[in-house]
């Protein structure tokens, strides 16, 4: 069993024993961790997003921090500030919650655009700049952000540059009746967060091994061309005003390689690309006004791109 397969199975076992019925979400988390990407979870409140993030940090032996998005949240509340220390008689830096291995930004679209932008540098360059000084973030820094559906009151749409920095977006739906029965049976008389903190932890060296394993997964030039053709098709689609960026192309290639490795493959197939495309493409598409009027969604357009773009042999 290669390192990628073992890593996903272990993560499914660890997190799946705490958060029930979210296997596809855990798989997306595993891809994001290996790729050092960031994950955006979209769904209604109360579906286990916080518990999932805390359990991930515990499994990876990482530091977990949480930020609650509100309309009065300021950028300094995330990055940190320089405060005067009377004993030292100088200003010292007080790190914000962004200095963590797993940062959960809950309801990110309730924060204003200025505060949302405070995460741009951290997500892309893994550093923050405060008062013209740069501060490095942890090596395995990962943002898991949640956002409510757009029709919820008091939400601000994320800017395109912010969305593009999320490698994957996962839509969370309500659990099935069987899963919800299991949740009630397990957590009806206990604290889910307390139980989640007691889980066995993954050895930290696993991440080094799995990231090296990705380098052994081959992607043929034809498959790279297929991904570029998908991007080109999105940019010329009649219902799209802003298509897939080059950052999105790279994210799709990385996610496909990791997905291929997690199924035990040595090379990427078109099915691997199609499997991860609904996680990588939709949130990066900016729809034209007529698409909104006709009720066309990003998911619909993504499926059209996959159906219409010729697949290499």
Automatic annotation (TrEMBL):
InterPro entries noted in UniProt: AAA+_ATPase (IPR003593), ATPase_AAA-3 (IPR011703), CbbQ/NirQ/NorQ/GpvN (IPR050764), ChlI/MoxR_AAA_lid (IPR041628), P-loop_NTPase (IPR027417)
All residue ranges annotated as the AAA+ ATPase domain in the record: 35-176
One Gene Ontology term of the molecular function aspect: ATP hydrolysis activity
Gene3D superfamilies associated with the record: Magnesium chelatase subunit I, C-Terminal domain (1.10.8.80), P-loop containing nucleotide triphosphate hydrolases (3.40.50.300)
Pfam families in the cross-refs: AAA_3, AAA_lid_2
Origin superkingdom: Bacteria
Protein name in UniProt: ATPase
Source organism of the structure: Steroidobacter agaridevorans
